[in-house]
Amino acid sequence: MDKPPTIADVAKLAGVHKATASRALNQRTSGQVNAATARRVLQAAKRLNYQPNAVARSLSTNRSATVGVLIPDLTNPLFPLIVRGIEDALGPSGYTALLANTDNDPDRAEARFDTLLSRRVDGFLIATARREDPLVVRAHEQGIPVVLVNRSTDDPLFPVVTGDDAAGVAAAVGYLTGLGHERLAHLSGPPAMSTGVVRARAFRQSAPAGSPVVDCDAYSDDAGAAAARRLLDEHPGVTAILAGNDMIALGALQVLRERGLRCPEDVSLIGFNDMRFVDQLVPPLTTVHVPHHRLGAEAARLLLDQLDRPGEPAKTVSLPLHLVVRGSTAAPR
């Protein structure tokens, strides 16, 4: 059986040094090689059907070309979009994402983190961060490259990629007040999450004074339903609700039906995220669109930059959001 071709075989056929062939075939270093030379190397590799030896490359570079990704809940439709963005950004650089679901459980997150560390991942993309997160602190103390995505910690230890939640909330509130709503309420995400706190703070700053805020225990339809029941029991005159995310909005919509309230005729409802299929609800959900694919892609690019240039200061990337108006909002009666 013939041996598989090596990088030395590619270099010989292309008439270049082995190091030059290696640089030409690595997306992160191909720019260092003359364009004509790089084309010659690529043609030689294709002709020989050359496949890079990942193990050998790992040994020579002390990198595994893998990245650990911690996701809180893969059943939440927004996180697969983030993962897809991560994979699309990592792929051209020859990196692979190793995915772990944590179920929003800190102990499970730490166990998954350790498992991925044992696989020698080069860094982490963490979408599970809490405002005070011992795992993130530990990663910082150990000098592990990390980028946080979608959620951040109170102490800015690592680069963060989020949406501009405050501006998204302000746009939603402005739209509701523009329709004539004066009795607004907010079903907030969990206060342990940065997204819950930032969106609730922005609501208090932009909504009419005294507009109630009810915290949800989780970003789920069940938690949204429980919070909506408390809200309507204590503030039955509310005419518009801004939910902390689309899952919370689904729970609120269920409670409106339970109470015999029509949406949007009696109560307008706005979600947050614009996850898939909310346009198929009855009524279709007005929501704040978050570019989740881009969140993942930007976070992956920041991590690759961090791996290439260790020691760079932490920075925050805040992506613009916009309101998508559908049938769940209308002027108050």
From TrEMBL:
Q: Does the keyword Amino-acid biosynthesis apply?
A: no
Domain HTH lacI-type span(s) in chain numbering: 5-61
Looking up Pfam families in the UniProt record yields: LacI (PF00356), Peripla_BP_3 (PF13377)
Alphabetical UniProt keywords:
DNA-binding, Transcription, Transcription regulation
Coiled coil regions in record: none
InterPro entries, alphabetized: HTH_LacI, LacI/GalR-like_sensor, Lambda_DNA-bd_dom_sf, Peripla_BP_I
GO MF term (any one): DNA-binding transcription factor activity
Q: Which domain of life is it from?
A: Bacteria
What is the protein name stated in its UniProt record?
LacI family transcriptional regulator
